[in-house]
Design goal:
By secondary structure, the chain is α/β, with parallel strands linked by helices. It has three helices and five strands. It has a domain at 62-133: Nucleotidyltransferase, domain 5 (2-Layer Sandwich), CATH 3.30.420.270. It has helices at 16-32, 84-95, 113-126, and strands spanning 62-66, 72-74, 77-78, 103-107, 131-133. The longest helix is centred in the N-terminal third of the chain and has 17 residues, at 16-32. The protein is rod-shaped.
Amino acid sequence: MKFRRKPRENVEINLASLIDVVFILLLFFVVTTTFTRETQLKVDLPEAASGTPPEQTELKQLEVLIAADGSYSLNAQPLLKSDLNSLMAALQKESAGDNSLPLTISADAQTPHQAVITAMDAAGKLGFAHLRITTVEAQATP
């Protein structure tokens, strides 16, 4: 007896829906991923091994002193508030609008960097061009 074999059907997997799902997942991961660059800078702050002393001039000099806690004083007169606007007002009043006067910024070694930047920003907004930052001469190590 000879049985007739059924013709074998070709089994095909429809990949169209699978590809759609993969592209949707890919799109989901691209949209929800945050790309951040982790950068760390190692900064060795320089020491002032040598420098030039300030020239003695007949011009009135302005000196902004910044304490370790970030408080400001202008020509040994402490400011009530330690913000940009009060520093700008004090500089404007002390210089009487003359922005050609030399301005010296003296900051404590433990002063927050933002306090020094705020002082430099105030000087820049008022147009002071002769800006000097004081440092302490580095001691020679034995």
